[in-house]
Amino acid sequence: MRAVTAVVGRIEGAVAVFEPRGWQLACARSALAAAQVLVLLANPDEVIFAGGPVCSGVGAIALWCLVEPAESPAADAVALLVLAVVLSGFRPRWTCVPHWYLAFGFAAACPVANGGDRIAQLATMLLVPLCLGDDRTWQWSRPRAALSPGWRGAAFAGHLALRLQVAVVYGYAVVAKFGDPLWRDGRALSVVLTDPNYGAPWPVLSDLVPAPALVGATWLVIATQAVIAVGVLWRPGVAVVAAGVVLHVVIAAVLNLQAFGLVMAGVLAACLVRAEDRRNSGGRIPVRRRAVRPIGGDRRGL
């Protein structure tokens, strides 16, 4: 019973000082929006929605399914306008739900599976509780008042769910790689870099890098993903997030996956939100504490 009470007390303490409205959340939302903007601007609809958007099931409510095919540029224009507002950081309370709707609709309507789109869909949904209580005009400005207890608890729950999801994504990637003989043998990067469709844009790269270095890099990828999976769940810090960002920057540069790299960088930045008012707000926001009556004592504020 004491153990349960201690755990509940620790959770209540973490919720009481949780303040998500810092630069980490701002960078995360902007990176997620920038990734979708990059995809829409760099690829025509004929490539993104080859054969037409998938409009069955819940995907029927996607923006790209609510207009006629001939009017798809209008859907792109609306999406880019909303994403530009999200990217700017204007009124996060009012833009978080439209942002999720666009991420969800794009992932649902796109006939080609894309891990970045699916992750962006989940991340924007889990960031909604962090943003709905945010009454700032710009997400880049310092908050001037503390969150209400209700919004603070909702933001804490959404952030915890996001960290759990990220831990699952990276943990599953590690497990899947151990199930692949190429990764276990350290030959995976050599195969990927020389793949004619998804390999490095510089064919000479595989000739310049010695085989032992590629084997080491292969295992380094697995080790980095394992560290991220544990780190974001246990205690996300700058070192863990920086390792993940560097990993995805290299992947983006070598395998031409810039949008995917932006999505993952945004998600990792969101995990970096720290449960501390003083850190995110310069110490100027009072933490709302509830008053409790100790046994055998007077009512006091804790």
Report on this model:
It is a single chain. With 302 residues, the protein is mostly helical. The chain starts with a helix and ends with a strand. The chain has 14 helices and two strands, in the order ααααααααααααααββ. It has a two-stranded antiparallel sheet with strand order 1-2. Helix 5 packs antiparallel against helix 6 and helix 7 runs antiparallel to helix 11. It has one domain.
Summarize the biggest pleated sheet.
2 strands, antiparallel
What number is the mean pLDDT?
A: 83
Task: List the domain count as a whole number.
Answer: 1
* Total beta strands: 2
Which characteristics define this entry?
single chain, mainly alpha, 2 strands, disordered C terminus, two-stranded antiparallel sheet, 14 helices, about 300 residues, globular
Give the secondary structure arrangement, pairings included.
Elements: H1 2-16, H2 23-42, H3 45-48, H4 72-88, H5 92-109, H6 115-131, H7 149-178, H8 181-185, H9 188-193, H10 205-208, H11 211-234, H12 238-255, H13 258-271, H14 277-281, E1 291-292, E2 300-301
Antiparallel strand pairs: 1-2
Helix pairs in contact: 2-4, 2-13, 4-5, 5-6, 6-7, 6-13, 7-11, 7-13, 11-12, 12-13
A few lines on this structure:
The protein is mostly helical. The protein is built from 14 helices and 2 strands; from the N terminus they run H-H-H-H-H-H-H-H-H-H-H-H-H-H-E-E.
